[in-house]
Amino acid sequence: MMSKRFEMDIVISNSDPRPIYEQISSQIRSMIISGTLSEGDPLPSMRILARDLRVSVITTKRAYNDLEAEGLITTVGGKGCYVSAVEPDVIREGHLLSIQENIRKAADEARESGITLEELHEMVDLMYDGDRGGRFHH
Predict the structure, then answer these.
(1) Which architecture characterizes domain 20-83 according to CATH?
(2) Per the count of CB atoms within 10 A, which of 22, 23, 69, 138 is most buried?
(3) What is the pLDDT of residues 110-121, one digit of tens each?
(4) How confident is the model at residue 135 (pLDDT cuts 50, 70, 90)?
């Protein structure tokens, strides 16, 4: 029996302030939400993913545990991890909560830094439209 080897296109960035496990889980989450990964698709074993990304198995285990806690993947004993059936409304609500928390943090930082609401709006508009490099003009 041939086993399906699935190549995960995950990029770990040293410039990303998030922990490595969070970078991994975030990218897998995006693949599930976007439909790149579908219900029932197998994920690489924690060991294989750790080897491919040159990180510890503890790191990949933490990423998989977080995804499982969110209901995005399921672990089948002795067989591995698979993408779960996920309701689109559940995914959307999770995104809304995450975005709300990020906006709250940005609003707090803007207020503390003397950045006006108009400047904050301009930043959000530019980022939403694709200016991810932070090239904001005052």
Answers:
(1) Orthogonal Bundle (1.10)
(2) 23
(3) 999 999 999 999
(4) low
